[in-house]
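TICKET: design request
STATUS: open
ATTACHED STRUCTURE:
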């Protein structure tokens, strides 16, 4: 049995772990609220300069929401999960680990 956690961010920052503190995780689902300008969500393993694992382009629509399900076991982040968001209102990342 896996324990899922979720964290919502409205600015660039860590989903799991923190600077110098590792917290591996497996990302299962991403929910976002877009903004009036097309944007991107980038999830990296190893902080803001880490390896890019997921990039999602978001539409230019202040009312658009989307759920992105990641198949199978999700995407493994061996160090931490860091989100860089640009022109996105908020992002919620569901993960285990």
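STATUS: resolved
RESOLUTION: sequence designed for all positions
ATTACHED SEQUENCE:
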């Amino acid at each position: 049995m896996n324990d899922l956690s979720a964290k919502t961010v409205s600015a660039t920052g860590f989903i799991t772990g923190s600077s110098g503190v590792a917290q591996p995780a497996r990302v299962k689902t991403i929910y976002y609220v877009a903004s009036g300008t097309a944007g991107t969500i980038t999830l990296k393993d190893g902080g803001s300069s880490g390896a890019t694992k997921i990039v999602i382009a978001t539409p230019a629509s202040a009312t658009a929401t989307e759920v992105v399900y990641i198949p199978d076991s999700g995407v493994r982040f061996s160090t931490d999960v860091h989100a860089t968001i640009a022109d996105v209102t908020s992002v919620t990342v569901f993960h285990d680990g």
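CLOSING REMARK: The chain has no helices and nine strands. The first strand starts at residue 4 and ends at 9.
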